[in-house]
Amino acid sequence: VNFAERYGQWAVVAGASQGIGRAFSDEAAARGLNVLMIARGQEALELSAADIRARHGVEVRTLAADLGSSSVGEVVANATDDLEIGLLVYNATVAPAGRFIDVPLELQLQSVAVNCATPVILCNLLAPKMVQRGRGGIGIVGSNGGTQGSVHFGTYGAGKAFGWILAETLWAELGDAGVHVNHIFVGPTSSPNYDAFKATLDPVLCGRPDSDDPLDRARARLMDPSSPQEVAAALYDQLGDGPVCYSRPEDAWISRASLDLPRAEAVNVWRALQETSTVRPDRQAR
Ligand SMILES: NC(=O)c1ccc[n+]([C@@H]2O[C@H](COP(=O)([O-])OP(=O)(O)OC[C@H]3O[C@@H](n4cnc5c(N)ncnc54)[C@H](OP(=O)(O)O)[C@@H]3O)[C@@H](O)[C@H]2O)c1
Known about the structure:
By secondary structure, this protein is of the alpha/beta class. It has eleven helices and seven strands. The protein has helices at residues 3-7, 19-30, 42-56, 72-80, 105-133, 154-174, 192-198, 214-223, 228-237, 249-260, 263-274; strands at 10-14, 34-39, 60-64, 85-90, 136-143, 179-186, 244-246. A seven-stranded parallel sheet has the order 3-2-1-4-5-6-7, sandwiched between helices. The protein is globular. The mean pLDDT is 95. NADP nicotinamide-adenine-dinucleotide phosphate is lined by residues 15-21, 38-41, 44, 66-68, 91-94, 114, 141, 143, 186, 188-189, 191, 194, 285-286. NADP nicotinamide-adenine-dinucleotide phosphate (NAP) binds at residues 15-21, 38-41, 44, 66-68, 91-94, 114, 141, 143, 186, 188-189, 191, 194, 285-286.
C-alpha cells in the first residue's frame, strides 16, 4: 500500500509554515496526502500552503492558531471535524534560550504548553479516531537536546524528553491497532538562522567527525546540518519502525553516547557544545 492508503487522507502538521514543519507538509503532500497546516503567522502559512498546493495538486488548508493557547484543542477539533486525519506530525516548538533563572516564567510556561501540553491534547483528540479506523500515524519531533540536561535550553530540553517518552508510550499502546508512532531525534538542520550560526563555528574544533569523543562528534555534526527535506523524509520513511528514529545515523550515535555517559559528563558535553559558538545563546543551535 502507498503512504496515503496506509495512513489516511489528511495530514495535520503542527508548526507548519517554515523550516522543518514546512518540509513535513510538503513531503506529506508529495506522498499524496491532503494537508492541514497550523502555525500562528497567517501570511507565511498562506504562502507556504499556496506553494505546496500548486506543486502537488492536493488539498491544503491552513489554520492560524497558537498551539500554546488553552483553547487549542477546541480550535483544532473544529478545523478537523469533517476530515479523516491519518497523520499527525507534531513539529512546533518554543525554545527559550538563556540560563534558566534569566528566562521569564511566562516564556518557560509557553514552552511547556507548546512542547508538552499540546501534543497530549492533539493526540487525545486524533489518536482514538485512528484506532477506530485501524490505521494512522503520529510523528513527534524531538531533539538531541532531549537526551540530557540542556544548559541554556533547560525547559526546551525537558519538553523534548517529554515528547520522546509520550511517543514511546503511544507506540506501545497503539501499534496493535494499526497506528504507527515514531519520535524523531533531529540533529542540526539548515535554516537562515542556523546557517548564520554555522558561519561563526571554528572549522578545526568542529572538524573531527571520526573521533570517538561525543563532543567532537556533536561539534562535527554542527558543521554539516541536515536539510529540512532530509528530516521530513527520514521520519516518513521510518514511521513504521518506531518508537524512535534519527534524522541521520550520526544522530543515533550522538544520542546513544549521551545516554551511555555518566550523567554529569553527558550534561557537560552539552554545555561544552553550547560554548562552541561565539554568538549569543538565542542564535545557537538547539
Ligand atoms: N532546526 C534545528 O536545527 C533543529 C534541531 C533539533 C530539533 N529541531 C526540532 O525541529 C522542529 C522544528 O524546528 P525548526 O527549526 O524548523 O523551527 P522553526 O523554524 O522555528 O519553525 C517552527 C514552526 O512552528 C510554528 N510555531 C512556533 N510556535 C508556535 C505556536 N505557539 N503555535 C503555532 N505554531 C507555532 C512556527 O510558525 P509561527 O511562528 O508563525 O507560529 C513555524 O512554522 C522543532 O520541534 C525543533 O525542536 C530543530
